[in-house]
Amino acid sequence: MSARRRHLLAGLLTGLAVAAGAPASPAQTNAAADPTPDTAAITAVLAGLDACFARGDLAAYLAAFEPDHVGAHALLRQHLERLAALDPGLVRTSAPVTPPRQIGPRTVVRVRHTLRTGDERTLLEDTMLAVRRDPDGRLVPTFAVEIPTQWGCVRDDHFRCPACNYEIGGVDGWLCVPVRPERARALEAASFYLLGTDVACDVSVVIDAAAPAAATVVRGLAAALAGLDAGARPGPVEAWLPPAHTAAPPPGFAGARVEISLPRDFDGRGGIACFYVLTFGGLQHVLLVRGSGAALDRHAADVQALLASYRMVQTDLDLALAAAQPLQHHTGGTLTDADYRNARFGFTFAGPAGWHAELRCGGAALRVLWSSSAGSRLWLTGYDVPAGLDRWCRRTADRWLQQLLQRADLEQKPAPAGGDGWTDHTLCGGGTRALTCVARNPEDAAAARERTIRVFLQDDLLLVADLGAANDADAAAMRAAVETLRRP
Amino acid sequence: MAAHDPDFLDPIGPAGVPFPSEGEWLDLPAPPADELTIAPDFVDRTLQAVAAAPTAEQELDRPLLDAVRRRAFAAPEPSPTFVDDTLAALRRDKTARWRELLTRHIAPEPSPQFVARTLAALAAERGVGAADGDRIARLHRWRFAAWPLLAVAAAAMLWLLLSDRPQPPIELRFAQQEPAAFAHAYAATPMAAVLDARDRSFDPHALSAGGPDGTWLLLEAGR
Questions:
Q1: In Å, what is the CA distance from B24 to each residue of A151, B18, B27, B28, B29?
Q2: CATH number of A348's domain
Q3: pLDDT in tens, A144-182
Q4: Main-chain phi, psi angles of A465, to 5 degrees
Q5: Which residues, at least 6 apart from B50, have a Cβ–Cβ distance to it below 8 Å?
Q6: Which residues of A touch B12 (CB under 8 A)?
Q7: Better pLDDT: A125 or B112
Q8: Number of residue pairs across A and B with CB atoms under 8 Å?
Q9: Which residues of A touch B93 (CB under 8 A)?
Q10: Of A354, A395, B97, B103, which sees the most CB atoms within 10 A?
Q11: Which of A430-458 are b and which e, b meaning 16 or more Cβ less than 10 Å from the residue's Cβ?
């Protein structure tokens, strides 16, 4: 039997199993009378999916879906395959944690999956699940996408963050799914899905102290996307403002857009990715509308309605404050000259005096860069406890450091033999270690410099200071700065 | 300093039940005094339980799969002819597939009679002389070299057409380009990979500002 036939048969069998496993709830028996399924009916669907998971039958699990969104479904497949490969003995139970609600043509529920490993460790995962009722009254899942187990800023699919100074959403048919910062590689992020279609809109908040023009940002994003996908064809960059601010744009507010054609996507029918960037000084709101060309044409009015729901919360903010406020709110950090203070994690760090200091963002809990006129750089990056773990420990920290070095193409120089390299940090508590690294393939003088990496480990934060010195005086200044770390 | 709007906070706490708002929490009545009494050994028992609980390091030291389960999932021994048989089958499939594809796109060679009749008809129509007859004869000889060239061109076009087949969704393509230890390697949006690429171009020598994926760190790194 071919793989395709096996896949179809598995789908049919799973559909029957899901339907047979569901209790004869009023919602299912009176499908025509009550179009919104109740919690019991959705629980039965989840039980059917959990049964597939328990059997390790991922083909049947995935075939139970009639996916609205091929991209989200592909990521679901990747995630399930990864879990199965990591621990075939994983046991999963799933339950809805919110009442079902109707969004456009779909019923949506937030689901909590509890996964137990063979050695009794527990992982929690939350997803947004959408289902539809087929003509026979059977519930068919169409969409499942990860959401954080805890989040703020969203109510009734309306995303509002006063600190990041914007709101968007609350539009008919659109589901809002918050995304964890480390997942989104941004200070804050959410995705909106037009349910029943393959159209989505991602929103990310980025801060760039250099405050580039909106057109420059959009051009950079298009180039980055084209760098990742050789088939992408960016169009011209155009000025664009959201309808809410077109008539009277606030001073300092600017926008631009670029449409990128993806001719080989959606089985060759062609896809579109369109970046919309709004800048307010160093604050950037980046929107990415994506989907098949046909669906975007058909639902152009829905997309325009979502874009029309975007607005800044405060239009008279000082530009410097507009960029500093999100960083302070989400990372807890502030800079006074070269001195960094973090209220969220409760520590201080005095950077080298006279150096240029800059707050950054990008998914990590915090990031600060000090740079000297000679070209030396000191990066201080803090990593939150990863989702699923309850704290950092030396082994997990070492594993993560290894990945960071590999990603940066750095090689650790041999350390003195004996011990694991960690010592207790007398002033801050927790552990600390120092690594000396060199680039594996230095491309220029800056890359060829020897790097010193100091790591500070506490239960709730992994702090990494990365020192790249251009001369001995700068190296001494950076070493002195690292010794100023205090966490009362 | 702006903060989260309390109306927009997640109503479901980590325990999966609605969490009271700050106002509701402060308005909760105090529990009766007799419910607050604790057993004399409560503190000691709690401390003992905390001390006895395995640390995160100890948990990570445990193997994820025991020997029995590893044996259960071990691959069977291949037969002695497995590799040869598989390669032969692959070769057969490949040959048959190419033959099938090429035969669709290569026209059958015209018969010598057909060519002769056509040339004769053309010559008669145009009233060609001896020099033209020589040129036609040369073209006739080149005909045998042209067909293989056309066949190669058809095969090249076919290869180009086939290599332009549909591809996985952009979300998956981009996610798969990212290292598995990083959280953004599992993002359901292409935006994360784009922002990562842009960030790395700003700071090409810096350690990544992307965070770790907890599931990878907990499960895969321990394997």
A1: 19, 12, 5, 6, 10
A2: 3.40.1000
A3: 999 988 877 888 899 999 999 999 999 999 999 999 999
A4: -105, 125
A5: none
A6: 97-98, 110
A7: A125
A8: 290
A9: none
A10: A395
A11: bbbbebebebeeeeeeebebebbbbbbbb
Same domain membership, residue A214 and residue A309:
yes
Domain termination residue (choose one: A259, A289, A318): A318
CB contact under 8 A, B207 and A466: yes
Reported as a pLDDT band with limits 50, 70 and 90, residue A139 is very high
Take residue A59 and report the two structure tokens written for it: 């083909």
Residue-wise over A346-358: b if at least 16 C-beta within 10 A, else e? ebebbbbeebebb
How long, in residues, is chain A? Answer: 488
Q: List the structure tokens of B213.
A: 């994926």
ipTM field = 0.89
The domain of A78 spans: 3-147
What is the CA B130 to chain-centroid distance, rounded?
A: 66
Q: Does B26 touch chain A (CB under 8 A)?
A: no
Residue A205 — φ and ψ, nearest 5°? -110, 130
What's the one-letter identity of residue B99?
Answer: R
Does one domain contain both A337 and A474?
yes
pLDDT in tens, B196-220: 999 988 888 899 999 999 888 877 6
* Sign of the torsion formed by the C-alpha atoms of A94, A100, A101 and A103: positive
CA distance A151 to A126: 11
Residues A428 and A381 in one domain: yes
Domain ranges of chain B: 105-163, 170-220
Of A74, A225, A410, the CB nearest to B169: A74
Q: A419-435: per-residue pLDDT in tens?
A: 668 888 766 678 899 99
Q: Rounded to 5, what percent of chain B is helix, strand, coil?
A: 60, 0, 35
| Final residue belonging to a domain, choices A116, A147, A178 | A147
> Does some domain include residue A225?
yes
Structural domains in chain A (count): 3
B203: which chain A residues are within 8 Å (Cβ-Cβ)? Answer: 369, 379
**Distance in angstroms (rounded) separating the CA atoms of residues A203 and A25:** 39
Q: How many CB atoms sit inside 10 A of residue A242's CB?
A: 21
Task: Say whether residue B104 is in contact with chain A using an 8 A CB cutoff.
Answer: no
